[in-house]
What does this fold into?
Amino acid sequence: QVQLVESGGGLVQTGESLRLSCAASGVIFSILEMGWYRQAPGKQRELVATITNGGSTNYTDSVKGRFTISRDNAKNMLYLEMNSLKPEDTAVYYCKLTTWPSLHYWGKGTLVTVSS
It folds into this structure.
């Protein structure tokens, strides 16, 4: 059973920074990709950033240049460094793990609130 636990969310002001962490545990084979998604109130869940097992990254346009995704394979940790936060970044942020052949696991999320 794979478990993902996010942490690091909180209330910050516009322009401030936060670092989210996601700890993966359990029996994990063949990780294909890990990523961060977010869901704002009244909106659908959307991709924020992903990182493949090979280290390739992908970001949604609205966070490019502000957010950085990274992972520590030895510790099964995923991170999201968020700088220059804006009120529109307010959302619940979820960690997602995709393993071979195409199994998806989600964490329960961590709330990020950016005040103007």
Summary: The CA atoms of residues 66 and 83 lie 5 Å apart. The mean pLDDT is 95. The radius of gyration is 14 Å. The chain is about 0% helix and 60% strand.
